[in-house]
Amino acid sequence: MRVSRTQAAENREMVIDVASRLFREHGFDGIGLKDLMKGAGLTQGAFYKQFASKEDLEALASRRALEHASRRWSDAAAKNPKDPLGAVIAFYLSAGHREERMDGCPVVALGSDAARQGSDVKASFEAGIREYLGLLGGWVGDAHGEDPDGKAMAVLSTMVGAVVLSRAVNDERLSKQFLQAAAESIQAGQAADRQRGSAQ
């Protein structure tokens, strides 16, 4: 039976959504096209009508996952406009987010995989990382003329690294300590910046 253009477009979007979650759970090389398409309720044959290659899908799914992650950051920040960074830290450096294999941060789940992929996948990650940095820059910047970019990079590196390490160990206590130490380090840095600002 022939699929309408509208249905084909909907199927394509569904495959991208499903792939964005399954890639985060299994890695780019940890799941094949047959299982990806099965996860979307479609046959493997339908893949080639929608995508040029698996790498094409990897790039699109990465972009989708990073857009979703940025929206989560914005939503968390909007719930606490007085302390948007604190709100994002609370959700990102939580045990709940650590356990979100399919819906968690794609940089944590796929960052090392992305480093081994082609330029299209890396471009998707770069766009998403720049979005993260833009959000963080608005929250960590201050009124004293300092460039917030370096601070934003340090905060992002700390947050991503903490979740990666917390997922990599069996010891639950150690896992939580990575998350807690990262949150405390970022908050201490912010407090020190505020103190310097009030002293000037």
Per DSSP E runs of 2 or more residues, the count of β-strands stands at 0
User: Main beta sheet: strand number and arrangement?
Assistant: none
In round numbers, the mean pLDDT is 91
**CATH class categorisation:** Mainly Alpha
Q: State Rg.
A: 19 Å
Helix content: over 70%
Instruction: Examine the secondary-structure arrangement and name the CATH architecture.
Output: Orthogonal Bundle
Report low-confidence residues grouped into runs of 5 or more: none
N-end to C-end Cα span:
72 Å
Number of helices: 10
CATH topology: Tetracycline Repressor, domain 2
CATH superfamily: Tetracycline Repressor, domain 2
Give a description of the structure:
- This protein is an all-alpha fold and 200 residues long.
- It has a single domain (55-199), classed as Orthogonal Bundle (Tetracycline Repressor, domain 2), CATH 1.10.357.
- It has 10 helices and no strands.
- It has helices at 5-26, 33-39, 47-50, 54-79, 84-92, 95-99, 106-114, 119-140, 148-168, 172-199.
- The termini are far apart.
- The mean pLDDT is 91.
In short:
The chain has 200 residues and is mainly alpha-helical. It is built from 10 helices and no strands.
Secondary structure blueprint with pairings:
Layout: H1 5-26, H2 33-39, H3 47-50, H4 54-79, H5 84-92, H6 95-99, H7 106-114, H8 119-140, H9 148-168, H10 172-199
Helix pairs in contact: 1-4, 4-5, 4-8, 8-9, 9-10
